[in-house]
Structure formats: C-alpha cells, structure tokens
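Need tokens for this chain, all 275 residues.
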Amino acid sequence: MPRRFAQVDVFGSAGGAGNPVAVVLDAEGMSDEEMQRFANWTNLAETTFVLPPSRPEADYRVRIFTPVLELPFAGHPTLGTCHAWLQGGGEAAAEEIVQECDAGLVRIRREGDELAFAAPPLIRSGRASDEETAKVAAALGVDPAEMLAVEWVDNGPGWIVAMFESAERVLELRPDRLDFDLGVVGFHPPGSEAAIELRAFAPVNGLAMEDPVTGSLNASVAQWLLGNGRLTAPYLATQGGAIGRGGRIRISEDGEGTIWVGGRSETVIAGEVNL
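Here are the structure tokens for all 275 residues:
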C-alpha cells in the first residue's frame, strides 16, 4: 500500500553534505520483517518508521533499523524523523517534541531553523580494558601510546571511542577491517570554529562504509568530554571530512545539565513508497 515517505539530509552544512535517513510515515500495520526488508533495500545507515505513540507523554513513536538490525536509539534518525513528522503535519502537544523509541522518551526542541535532541544517558561508560585498547590500536594501525584515551561511551549503538591529540591525525587514519563499532575524536587547533573532529565506523550495525555524521556518537562524546573538563559547551563538532561530507553538529548544555545535540535537517526526497 502507498505510504508517505521522506529522505532527509541531517547535520549537513548544506543539502547533501550530511547523513541521509529514510523515513516512512504512516507505518502502522507493517511487520518487523517488512520494516527490516525495506531498511535493507534502502541501504542507508538507518531507515525509520513512524507509528502512533504507545505512551501518553509521546507525540509519536519511531522504530529505527539499520540494513541488518533494529536500534533502540540513533541520533541523526531522531532529528530526521522529527523533521519529516513536522513537515508532514505533526503537531506537538507542548513546546518540546517527545519521541518514543525503544530506548525510551527522547526530548527534541526547535533551535531556530534547526532541531536538537536531549542526549540520552549512557548505558556503558568508563575506561576500556588493556585488551580492548590493544584491539582498537591494531584496528587503527597506531601505537597504543598515541591514543590519549580509549573509553566506552555507549548510549545504545555500542560505541567505544579513541581520543587523539589532533583533528588532523583523526582525518589521516585508515582503519583496517573492523569487527566492532568504533568512534574516534581529535581536537581542532585553538581558535578554530569547530572544537573537535569525529569519525564513526559501525560494521556491527550493518554499515560497510564509514558513517558520514553520527548523532548518537556526538551525544555520547559530548557527555564524556564535558564531564571530564576537556571541553565546555556550547561547541561545534565536525564530521565527514574524510569522506567528502560536511557534517556540523552543535552541542549545548542547559541550566539543568541536559546536553543538547543539534543541527540542520533538509528534506531531499518526498513522496510515497509502496509497502
């Protein structure tokens, strides 16, 4: 049957510079198998399916699929889905939009022409083991001593992150084939517009190529670096430079200590799909 559909570019400095997400609106009645099959067909990092909420606090419910599995939460699909839902006539019950997903309720707010989501809590954190650190170093082809830190900063997708001194070094990395999901972060020179450069590799989640821009990773890295005092908010992060994209992610922190992850969303394709 025909269902409303949008493909949204998220976190891009301009149209086509960010990370695309496919959004199926009016997904009620689709089975798990149908959702996974379509997500595999789109072959994007994530495809989302919008459903009526099951909790009274939520404005809508979303299910998030990679080409091979369902995720409890993901960042750029959260903003892209919200953007498509609003453009499709969705109306929030309050000033903030509340999205329901398998990870729980996620708050989303408007920041001018952009959207931002409240970073979900980490489900795993702390220093990686010596064995895990060695595995990360081997995958990146670096001496373990070159990494300033390797930590778990997982808010759902399974992120372990290696920290480097410079953004330039992060962009130089040429990882070997990975069998685990990995983020890397390095610092731009003082006085730069952006504070950090990130890269993300998620083979466990079905991504054969490097992920262009990653909201969940930026959310968890922000919690890590703001928490240990390496950065202060607000700041701008960049991602995608190594693969010709121009991702720009805005990190802020409100008076209650909530970290917000924001950026630009733009509908690139709109119409119907037969599912």
